Amino acid sequence: MTEDMQGRKVAFLVAPEGVEQVELTDPWKAVKNSGGWSELVSIRPGTVQAFHRLDKADNFDVDKTVPPTRAADYDALVLPGGVVNPDHLRQVPEAVQFVRDFFQQRKPVAAICHAPWLLVEADVVSGRTVTSYPSLVTDLRNAGAIWADQEVVVDRGLITSRGPEDLPAFCSKLVAEMSQHQPA
């Protein structure tokens, strides 16, 4: 197995505010350090406000917006967590469809912490084994997922982790899975 993401383009989907900064920046660095190219996708142009738990952290420039950006433009998707970030995104039909399209196109998707809320809304977890921040267990089970209390779970191209403490394992697995997938 190679861990070379050369030529792979990865979308990081975030809301205008509420993304957990380290869950954005650590996977971003992992993709970059393995030769991949990332773009920050949001639901409106400008900047996004990241957080460190409940405290404001850095702002990041948005590269593209949904719409018109499409899953077909990328090889993989990363969904960082933070409580507000996925809660906001799951209320935006275009963001939900963007996520759903990655699954329909059988492309790797990585989601950490509270991000699986967006997977529930996209109706893509039924029958899959996943993990998440513990407060999402009931939501995921009600959506048909099998929840596992593990630092990282991989199920048919879906990579999930519980939270920031699992970032080393999450980043390693997302690079490995995305490296195996053939670029679009």
Automatic annotation (TrEMBL):
Any one Pfam family match given in the protein's UniProt record, by short name: DJ-1_PfpI
* GO molecular function (one): transferase activity
Keywords, A to Z, come to: Glutamine amidotransferase, Transferase
Q: Which CDD domains match?
A: GATase1_PfpI_like
The answer, when asked if Transferase is one of the entry's keywords, is yes
Q: Which residues form the DJ-1/PfpI domain?
A: 8-176
**Superkingdom field:** Bacteria
As for family, the record states: Belongs to the peptidase C56 family.
Read off the PANTHER family from this record: DJ-1 PROTEIN, PROTEINASE
Write down what this protein is called. Glutamine amidotransferase
Origin organism is Saccharopolyspora rectivirgula
**Organism classification, top ranks?**
Bacteria, Bacillati, Actinomycetota, Actinomycetes, Pseudonocardiales
